[in-house]
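Residues determine shape. Next comes a sample protein:
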Amino acid sequence: MRTRLAITASAVAALLLSLLFVVQPAHAETGFEIRDGRLVDANGNDFVFRGVNHPHAWYTGETESFAEIADLGANSVRVVLSSGHRWTRTEAADLANVIAECKANKLICVLEVHDTTGYGEEGAAASLDQAVDYWIDMQDVLAGQEPYVLLNIGNEPWGNTNYQQWTGATTQAIDRLRDAGFDHTIVVDAPNWGQDWSFTMRDNARQIFQSDPAANLIFDVHMYGVYDTAAEIQSYLNFYVDAGLPIMVGEFGHNHSDGNPDEDAILATAEDLGIGYLGWSYSGNGGGVEYLDLVEDFNPDTLTSWGQRLFNGPNGIVETAETASVYDGSDPDPSPSPTPDPSPTPDPEVGCTAAYEVVNQWGGGFQGEVEVTADEDIDGWQVTWTFTNGQRVTQAWNADVTSSGSAVTAVNKSYNGDLSAGQSTSFGFTGSHSGTNSAPVPTCTPRG
């Protein structure tokens, strides 16, 4: 998140590459896609972002924030990641954990490389091409996550210097991702520190969209001081809607050093047009913009005035958010993983059962998920299993997991132990393997 103000406009670009757009194959029905200028999920239902940004790359220990954001009412989260050019690199296991946290909390996850912020003006910034290198490095983790994850190539990928190069660089980045085999919906951030005061993204949006052989991308404008009147907000967003082009507000605030954005108009216009928004940001802001924190010190019980406005105010998250239909119990994946044994214990009256599933796997590593279901009211649970191929758990979430040799024990957290009969919860973990990764049969026993 960084913004600058200027007052010029660019000319409308010619519409190019329409023939390529016509002859290329349609997006595979495995995840999000764009239909008639709108974002739809893997079940074919409209999805509208109502969420916040999470500064994960700078606060990797704050993974409980995902559950907190969901509990506050959000249906989505835009997650700050790092390619390693400016901050500590977000590695594969950490990325898998982020995705698992989003899924466990029924959040749609927009993943963005933040190192590109202000490229061309900010000397330390990475290029879009370098951001694509990172996504390709992470492809094994991202494969199969199309129903839950969108790829935001790079955050605010140009400043106010030489921003005219944004169009070509963006087209090339999209081409590289598609050539590498990515089927995800791609999110394209505007230049000018995300605010597009020059209208470079707006005037080249159709050209960019038609350059994508999958026709599966959404544009992302960030609204800070440039958007300080309702007229400016409505004019910018209506341009895309009227043109049948997908648009979202990936960042915005209630105040900023470059001016005072009209947050009420942003929220009202987004709701009126049925387009998504994600407020900046959950917590942890510094550098003089601490007022953009939605909660104090990552504590969901201490909403700031900005947090109260975004979550609980008119046209805010609580009033307008709807959970993505991919989390309603149906499986959008046409080639799901083998279904684990839902009854691993011989007596279902013991209180609870557990089902183990490998949800993602890459060279030397994997991501597992265990669903715990109560057969009767319980106050806590413990799940145990034994690996048979030398696997090891390396990181876990939503449970306290310990290992002794090949034996693994997982115990509920304070917030997910009380289950009513028929109620389920889940926990996840990343692990290592040496080639063979057979799924063990877990056993669940009540605690307390």
User: Anything to note?
Assistant: The chain has eleven helices and 18 strands. Residues 258 and 280 are 15 Å apart (CA to CA). The longest strand covers residues 352-362.
